Amino acid sequence: MEELFKKVKERFQLLPEGMLHIKDLQSLVFADTHIGLEFALAEKGLFIPPVQYSRMKLNILRAIEHAKPERIIILGDLKHKFEERTPQEHKEVLDLLASLKSLNKELILIRGNHDTYISGFLERFGVKVLDYLILEDIVLIHGHKPVPEDIVTEDKFLVMAHVHPVVTVFDGISHHRFKCFLLGERSLILPALTPLLSGFDIINGMMDSDEYKSPLLEDNLNDYEVILVSTAGHVLNFGKVIQLQDRLKRGIIVNH
């Protein structure tokens, strides 16, 4: 269990903001910002102060300052609404792309299922748009579609997003939900950067919506390592899914 985590840490840095730094490729990867989500929720009668973008932007800029990458990869779902670009999305997507462009980094968007109606923005700021990206032995893909058949994946490491993995913990009084990375032998699933959308709860195997289903998500995740992103700004290895499920069922929480 620890050996896999140590091996990954030699090449990858899992950041407490839920981002990935691929050290040898000087690349920072983040996913599922879902900019404009508050506007979409308001249309459904759920009103949340539109402050999430400013927090996400601050975390992104902090991660860039820390990692000092040459390449920034957005692993899909930069914006939220399918049907159109909302005023909130217009303003905030423009602001984020302008901020990233000013840093003189290579910008890449791996297209997610929500990334509609922004091709003009992306072209304006020189963002390369791809369905997937291969960097040496790493395949980066959003995860809502399968890897193209012509790509041989047996000797590749897969990095994906889309499913918004979380862990729900009950402490005897209340439930607490944490974002997490899921680490397999040859794959890594990133958490969503937005704090407002949970997706796949790995403890009970439930998804908040069928929208988060992925053809790349294995049926059996028992041997995947759970790397929690804590609210205190730490990345914590909680062991394999099956072990964590067992501990939580027995009311045992590992202190880190």
Main pleated-sheet profile:
8 strands, mixed
Q: What overall form do the CA principal axes indicate?
A: globular
As a percent range, the share of helical residues equals 10-25%
Record field, number of beta strands: 16
Q: What is the CATH architecture annotation?
A: 4-Layer Sandwich
Give the strand content: 25-35%
**In terms of per-residue confidence, which ranges show pLDDT below 50 for 5 or more consecutive residues?**
none
Order of helices and strands: HEEEHHEHEHEEEEEEEEEEEH
Task: Please give the structural blueprint.
Blueprint: H1 2-11, E1 12-14, E2 20-22, E3 27-30, H2 37-43, H3 52-67, E4 71-74, H4 87-101, E5 106-110, H5 119-124, E6 128-130, E7 132-135, E8 138-141, E9 157-160, E10 166-170, E11 175-183, E12 187-189, E13 200-201, E14 206-207, E15 225-229, E16 235-240, H6 241-249
Parallel strand pairs: 3-4, 4-5, 5-6, 8-9, 9-12
Antiparallel strand pairs: 1-2, 2-3, 7-8, 10-11, 11-12, 11-15, 13-14, 15-16
Quick structural overview:
The protein has 256 residues and is of the alpha/beta class. The protein contains 6 helices and 16 strands.
What this model shows, in words?
The protein has helices at 2-11, 37-43, 52-67, 87-101, 119-124, 241-249, and strands at residues 12-14, 20-22, 27-30, 71-74, 106-110, 128-130, 132-135, 138-141, 157-160, 166-170, 175-183, 187-189, 200-201, 206-207, 225-229, 235-240. It has 256 residues and is an alpha/beta fold. The chain has a single domain (2-249), classed as Purple Acid Phosphatase, chain A, domain 2, CATH 3.60.21. Strands 7, 8, 9, 10, 11, 12, 15 and 16 form an eight-stranded mixed sheet that branches. A six-stranded mixed sheet has the order 1-2-3-4-5-6. It has a two-stranded antiparallel ribbon with strand order 13-14. The longest helix is centred in the N-terminal third of the chain and has 16 residues, at 52-67. It starts with a helix and ends in a 7-residue tail after the last helix.
